[in-house]
């Protein structure tokens, strides 16, 4: 069953018994990625929630627009963002 989640985005009804906890085996790349998100002030729980929601949104949007059949993993995605307008000091790079 599909429900309308917003303009151009559909979502599937969640499973009746969704797991209360998610367990993921960490590897070196995931540890590095989590550390990157921690620089923005996210803890592991919120980083996981946001990342999961964002990726699911991208998949649903690609399927809704007909760019990929439902259930197929989009092979190419891009991100657009507005540049930060206030002066800031670049860290790393």
User: Distance between termini?
Assistant: 45 Å
Measured by DSSP, the beta-strand proportion falls in 5-15%
Shape: extended
The amount of helix comes to: 25-40%
Mean pLDDT: 83
User: How many beta-strand elements?
Assistant: 2
Fold topology:
Elements (H helix, E strand, L loop, with lengths): L1 E5 L2 E4 L15 H11 L5 H21 L29
Antiparallel strand pairs: 1-2
Q: What can you see in these coordinates?
A:
- By secondary structure, the chain is of the alpha+beta class.
- The protein has two helices and two strands.
- Strands 1-2 form a two-stranded antiparallel sheet.
- It is extended, with a radius of gyration of 17 Å.
- The N terminus is likely disordered.
Features:
10% strand; 93 residues; 2 helices; alpha+beta; two-stranded antiparallel ribbon; single chain
In short:
This protein has 2 helices and 2 strands. With 93 residues, the protein is an alpha+beta fold.
